[in-house]
Amino acid sequence: MTDLKDPRLIYLKGFLFLVIGLLSSALLIIQHPTIKVGFLLAVAIWAFARLYYFMFYVIEHYVDPGYKFAGIWSFVRYLCRRRQGPRVRGQESGVRNQESDEM
Questions:
Q1: Helix axis angle, 7-31 relative to 35-53, nearest 10°?
Q2: pLDDT tens, position by position, for the chain (103 residues)?
Q3: CA dist 29 to 18, 25, 33, 48, 87, Å?
Q4: CA distances (Å), 40 to each of 7, 17, 44, 49, 61, in order?
């Protein structure tokens, strides 16, 4: 599969994510209509949105400028590679510039 290039399809994809989220949330609240369930659902949605922001923006802009976000699995692979220890400089994206570490 290739990347989406048509802005209309990109907006459609975003809209479909919104519809899925709204429908799923509504069905959960209809099934268990309590303040507690609504609050926990809102907190979960907020927390996952913040995690996603952390994965693609915070890591790329503040922690490792060489890392380029390409999705959640990209981030998981990035974390696994970092646990394997230091790599040769410039081996892959996600490697920090050693000169910037010395400053």
A1: 150
A2: 788 888 899 889 989 999 999 999 999 999 999 999 999 999 999 999 998 888 888 888 888 888 887 888 888 888 888 776 655 444 444 444 444 444 3
A3: 16, 6, 5, 18, 48
A4: 34, 20, 6, 14, 30
* Residue whose tokens read 């809209």: 15
Specify whether 59 is located in the same domain as 95: yes
Tally the domains of the chain. Answer: 2
Cα 83 to chain center, whole Å?
A: 19
Q: 2: exposed, middle or buried (C-beta count within 10 Å: 0-12, 13-18, 19+)?
A: exposed
Measured between its terminal Cα atoms, the distance across the chain in Å is: 42
Tell whether 29 is covered by a domain: yes
